[in-house]
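Throughout our pipeline, every protein is held as a single compact record rather than as scattered files. This encoding replaces a full spatial description with a residue-level series of whole-number codes. The remainder of this section carries one protein's record, kept here as part of the documentation.
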Amino acid sequence: MTRCEVVDMLSLGRAYVSIRQGDLSRWVCAVQFDILDASLTRVLAHATWYLNLGSGEKPRAGRRGGYWAAWVRANNGMPNRNDHLSPSVFVKRYAALALEVANDP
């Protein structure tokens, strides 16, 4: 039986892409992170965080959604009235990730 443990890791936002998933008929923003070692100099692995942007004709970040909350947290505040909530706010920012790691006995 495989055992899982949750590990807290530091990571750095590397890239993002907003795409329409045709098979699911929805928009997602995929943010890629480099998971770093304790010295923050070596990349141990990569992780992708998928944020839902709705299923309309255009991507939409509603105020109750996860993208909105993540954007406000990464921006350290609410957006200005004319902000477009660009996913570039996640790039070159450190984040703490809780990863579930599977270990074989």
Q: What stands out?
A: Residues 7-97 form one domain. The helical segments are 66-75.
